[in-house]
Amino acid sequence: MENRPARNYTKLVVVIAVAALVVGSVAYLIISPVGKNTIPTSTLSSTLTTHSSQTTTPLFSTFSAPLPVGSQSSIYDPANGYVYVSYGDGATGGVSVVSGTISVANITLDSGPGPLLYDPANHFVYATGVNSGAIAIINGTEIIATIPTNLPSSFLYDPANGFVYVASQASWNISVIDGTKTVASVGVGEAPSSLLYDPSNNYLYVSNGGGDTVSVIDGTAVISTMTVGSGPSSLLYDPSNNLVYVANEGYGLGGTVSAIDGTNVTATIAVGASPSSFL
Prior knowledge:
0% of the residues lie in helices and 50% in strands. It is mainly β.
């Protein structure tokens, strides 16, 4: 038998710190970014208490970037190291602000949970109270402004112009926000639901679920409206070919995915029933 030299294997061990946080009646699993708010190994048997519920939950391991369990939305603010967690039962709700393993603030909204968005240019967090339709703008742990909208469904930050876009399902428009002020209201198709930014052309794509169309916005103006499959919902950008994909749920007519190049639909692909999301 041939004698082979022994191989040396280097094993990379990554230590992740994990904590359970109870906000209201919902539990969240939080991992803090590497180098931020790390939990010493000596504290692994301790407990975590939140201000909102005063419920203690054992810590499981050690810490590293937010991974919520059961929340509709959560984000991390690299400017202050806070994790923002949206919570609520539809009738009441708000945003909990977490630093490390401590809830440092509880911001009450009209209802929740709703989507959150981080604006890296201003270091603001945008939140919606859902039922009220107002957008709350949070700086740190305080609401500094509110902007009225009509049944907001999704947010998007445009890194090319620094604007925040808010889709309003009931009024069929997109609110364009610069910091704390609305600078434009852009009319789109029926019941806009999802927003997507295309970095190859700096366009904003809007799926209009009630009208079977996708609107394309450049800055504050619609430059194209394309007919796609029935019930467009989720959007995805593919950086390998610069195409935008649209999941068309079909509503009993058969699911499809539309491929868009700039302002033109280049293909419609038949898929399984009711496609609703991309990976």
